[in-house]
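Re: the multi-chain job from yesterday

Posting the exact lines I submitted so nobody has to dig through the queue logs.
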Amino acid sequence: MGLLWIVEAMLLGCLLVYRFTDLAAAQPSWAGWLLVFGAGAAGGMGLASALFFLLGVVGGIPAAAMMVELAGLAAAAWMVFRGAEKKESPGAARYPMRVTLWLAALSALALATAGMAAAWQWNPQGNWDAWAIWNLRARFLSAGGGLASRAWSPALAGATHTEYPLLVSSFVARCWAYSHALSQAVPAAASYAFFLALIALAAGGLAALRGPALGLSAGLVLLATPALLREVPAQYADVPLACYVAGAVIFALLERPVLAGVFAGLAAWTKDEGLLFLAVFLAVTVLLRRRTWLQTALGALPAAVLALAFKAMLPKGTTSLLSASAGGAGHRVVDFGRAGTILAEFGRQFASMGVQWYHPILPLAALAVALRFDGGRRRDLAFGAAVAGLLLLGESAVYMVTANSLEWQLQTSLGRLLVQVWPVLVVTAVLALRQPERLAVVEVAKTRKKQRG
Amino acid sequence: MKRASVREQVRYPAGVTAGLAAAVVLCLWGAVQSYSTEAAYQQANSDPYMVSMQFQRFAQVPEMVPRDAVMGYLSDAPSGVVDTAMFDSAQYVLAPRILERGAAHDWVLGNFTRPGDFHSVAQANGLRLERDFGNGAILFRREEHR
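And the result, structure tokens for all chains:
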């Protein structure tokens, strides 16, 4: 039953996105559907998480959250049904290696899923932080009564990081609470759903922006990124965050600033790094896409306010990494040895994103050599690169000041930070390539046909 | 009568096709490598902290200890990764009960790595042994609750 509640949240999101945005009209039509699925699935899970937290946990009435959600689902379904109109579909887009690209993407998805299935079988509880932090807090949140507040109890502060934002824990708790069962399949499936949404957003978004061949190529590169695939069955918040980060950038590039803001806000409700991303994203939007900054900020507002209010009001007896590192930060910032250690670990972790001789930079390099860069996409390239670059810079600054053991901090977190940023790097790199469809040579052949008459 | 018709043929430069083909082959290679490595790794490192086993070890504790209890926690594990893993996984399994290290609570969970004289452990901490679930999983209770 818990899995059905994941599907319900995704369906609610898809119906809302279909009804209230024009993403379904994106071309080619499959790109529109992928965008509706990606935005709807991730947005729906984020919305359901916030609703459960506000009404079910803070309000103490989980049934109210469920009723509001189901009423929303029924209303959205009715609006979609009423507004349904048959749209003229243009002919199938022509692009190189159409069948090959689709077959490869589906094969890579099947292989990725098979690898994850092994993890689900042998490690159903996920990796350490899943049961020590994210799913533990979900168990408290789903307990009902006054016990939900134990998710941020001072007794758990420290190892359980009660100050971390709650999107993932609250969403898992919602499924457990509504189904009255603590099925271990729920957090695993939720993580997989975010992964699918991420792939759909990257492939669909780039197909709409830069044509089907580049869209499918971007999806394929992500499906063949071992470091990303490893994080899905871990059941951490890094894949959901990667999904929101990539979604925000893609919607900004697609000139959907409100949706971009919504995704940036949901990133802030997912992880502390999401708060940094929100600040970076708004700053880069103000600098490079000034026309849309207000709509973006308004879209981000609800989830960002929720995240900040939670952090300011509820967890007690806990200090953030930054405030705990204030003492002696001045000395650490000017310690160039630390900068060297951080850079070296960046290189090491980047190299280990692959497996054996394979690294996901290789297919990107092959595409770049064959297609070369499109000078006309400088503005979009600057936007994606600025977001990814500033995010990595911000994370490096945190490493510079942290009072924790630098080696321990780097080894336990840097690989996952790269996973959060990698989809934006892939989208930005592929976006900047020349469109294969535009390099086509059209040959016109005249043939004579015999006609009776 | 004969009529001329025009047919468009779209051709892509060899470099474009080769580049896309190379990317496809590389990605499929990566996907296969990733799958085989991951499947082998997961099988070889099945549940390294034995979290699933804790659900069995402590299966009867939730039936005996109220959901809103704050429980004490005693263990013989040397401090380090093993001790932390044992504590965190027990906390995960027994939530929404909260575990706090020490014996200063009515209910105290014993999580031991070796067989031992758990009655003596109980006496030394002003507790009595409420139930021995076997395999080092013990439930103690404060004496005045007898």
